[in-house]
Amino acid sequence: MTTPDPTATELSLLGHAAGLPASPAAAVLERIANPHPGTAYLVRFVCPEFTSLCPVTGQPDFAHLVIDYVPGDWLVESKALKLFLGAFRNHGAFHEACTVEIGKRLVDLLAPAWLRIGGYWYPRGGIPIDVFYATGTPPEGLWLPDQGVPPYRGRG
Predict the structure, then answer these.
(1) Is 16 annotated among the ligand-binding residues?
(2) How far is it, in rounded angstroms, from Cα 81 to Cα 102?
């Protein structure tokens, strides 16, 4: 595996003021070169206050997202990821659509060795909906911690 040229991708968001994109489709996801290509290590992003809109009622939905991936040649640039996730705030889509779309966009951008996303959604109509997407089996020997989000228990 060859190391990608870190100057090959122009970063348009980093170091500049940037507002939330109008939609997830309009969001620009950017990547940077992996400083350790060929090494199986885990990168985790946690978004405990993810928000989107119910496509039927227009009411807000809330989730705790955990994104784990093993980089190939690229890492996602974190500011671009934050803006991409924030673009869902005014986006109407079901929980399953949001969670899987995020995972697939990252896979398309990064071509990671492995990726999983856990979408731990707060109850809608009294029922929490948790959505999980993964690209396959994690690399052998990878230390893979639990995502650490307990199932929703209400006041249990």
Answers:
(1) no
(2) 10
Whether residue 142 lies inside any domain: the answer is no
Provide the domain count of the chain.
1
Tokens at 127, concatenated: 């029922």
Residue with the two structure tokens 């959604």: 121
Annotated catalytic, 73? no
* pLDDT at residue 6 greater than cutoff 60: no
**Helix 78-86 crosses helix 95-110 at what angle (to 10 degrees)?**
150
Owning domain of residue 96: 31-134
Rounded Cα–Cα distance for residues 66 and 131 (Å): 11
Catalytic site residue 61? Answer: yes
77 has binding-site annotation: yes
pLDDT digits (tens, 9 = 90+) for 59-77: 999 999 999 999 999 999 9
Judge whether 78 is annotated as a binding position.
Answer: yes
